[in-house]
Structure formats: structure tokens, C-alpha cells
Amino acid sequence: MRTLRMLALGTLAHVKQMSRSPFEVTIALVVPIVQATLAVYLFRAGQEQHRLLEAAVGAGLMGVWSSVLFGSGGAIQNQRWQGTLEMIMLAPRRPVMVILPITVATGLTGTYALLATLAWGRILYGIPLDFARPFGFVVAAVVCIVALGMFGLLLASTFVLMRNANALTNTLEYPIWLVSGMLVPMTVLPAWTGPIAAVLPTTWGARALREATTGGPVWPSVAVCLGISLICLAFGSISLTYVERRARAAATLALA
Q1: Segment among 209-213, 217-221, 243-247 with least mean pLDDT
Q2: Is 89's pLDDT higher than 50?
Q3: Which stretches of 82-133 are DSSP H helices?
Q4: Can you spell out the DSSP letters for 160-224?
Q5: Distance, CA of 206 to CA of 202 (rounded, Å)
Q6: What is residue 176's DSSP assignment?
Q7: φ, ψ for residue 175 (rounded to 5)?
Q8: Would you say 19 and 109 are in contact if contact means Cβ atoms under 8 Å apart?
């Protein structure tokens, strides 16, 4: 119970902190509009009007991924700039228990991107929100957000070690959502991207949301997404402990 309470309070604190950042608020307001517009005109140009809702869901998931990626990296970098990263890493808890609330908070904040993209698609472009499996969609969205938070934890180990996390986040944003099939069908991608996509929780989360939208089998994709997220949690915990010790030994933890 103490651990769950600590995680809940830590997540709440980081959500409040991000909600008071002008940059985060501006991005949250602008990005959903841009992504909804991109998805609608892309699919309209391809004469695929019947898939506009799928496009809106995929564009919203892109926003969640961007929030997790930049939020996780930005949160660690901000802690370093503020001089509090050492205090966080010296807390009498395992590093994973301290960093996990940050990554989960970015996933929760990214939920707004998904909801706002759907809302803008409905208001501006008249996309009917007719989900084939509404309950399945809600469950898939929750699992997908949790999985992205766990994936962000795995990436956070590198963010602690690197002096400039933006160098990694800028590189990973578009390749991940492209390979995961969030907006572009995976069938049009090269065959060598298949094995990469199969080990990413973003792939299965996007598939689960798409199946819930169209009426396909939701639960197998949800189960795989949840399983990969648990693997990310385990590897993230091990990796974070390793790089934290390495950063201490090299005296690079506080370098900005």
C-alpha cells in the first residue's frame, strides 16, 4: 500500500507540474488540431472516407506517444537543470520507483491528445464517433497508455545517462509511430520493419485501438500489449539501476 500510495502521489505531483508549464500546455492545445487535420486530409486524399475515425484514433495515439517520449526525456532533463536529479536518485527507494511516476504522468497527460484529436475531428470535420466496441476501446486505451508509460521507463534509463535527452527523443518520435502503424498501414512498409514492430508495445496498442474501432478481435492485442509492457517494466528497472550506478561512478549525473 505504501508503494502504491507513493506512485499515486508522485504521478499526481508530476501531472500538476506539467500542467503548469506554458510549453506543455501550448503543445497540448496545438498538436491535436494539427494531427487531426493531417489525418483527415491524408485519408480524404486517398479516397478512404470510411476510415476517417481510424485515422483520428491513430493521430491521437501519435499525440500520446509524443507526450510520453518528450515528457519522459524533458522531465529528467528538467530535474537535472533544477539540480534535483541527485536528490531523486538518492531517495531511499529503487530508481524505478522514483522515475516510474514521471513516465506514467506523461502518459496520463498524453491522454488529452487522444481525446482532443477525436473531439476536433468530430467538431471540425464531422467524423462520427461510432466505435464498434466502446468498452473494448476504453480498455485498450488504458492498457495502451500504461504500456507507453512502461516503455517510457525503459527509455528513461538512457535519459538519465545522456546529458542531452533531446538528441534521442528527436530521433525516435517519427520512426516509432511510423513502424507501429499508428497512421500508416504496416502492410505498406518494408518487410524488415515487421520484427521491429512486433516487439514494440506501441504496435499492439495501436492495433487494439484500431480493432476496437472497427469491430475486430481486441483482447489478443490488448494481452500482447500488456505482456510487452511488463517486460519493459522489468528491463527498465534493471537498466535504470545499471545506468544510475554508472552515472554515479563516472560523476556525470548532474552534468547538463
Answers
A1: 243-247
A2: yes
A3: 85-89, 95-125
A4: HH-S-THHHHHHHHHHHHHHTTSSS-GGGS-TTHHHHHHT-HHHHHHHHHHHHHHTS-HHHHHHH
A5: 6
A6: H
A7: -60, -40
A8: yes
Contact 153, 236 (CB under 8 A): yes
Residue type, position 199, single letter: V
Q: Which three cell numbers stand for residue 232?
A: 519493459
* Residue 81 in grid coordinates: 537543470
Query: CB neighbours of 141 closer than 8 A, spacing ≥ 6?
Result: 111, 114, 209
d(CA 99, CA 244): 11
Q: pLDDT, tens digit, for every residue of 181-209?
A: 887 777 778 888 888 889 988 899 889 98
State the residue for C-alpha cell 505531483: 13
CA distance linking residue 69 with residue 50, whole number of Å: 31
The tens digit of pLDDT for each residue in 140-195 reads: 988 888 888 888 777 777 766 666 656 667 777 788 888 888 877 777 788 888 88
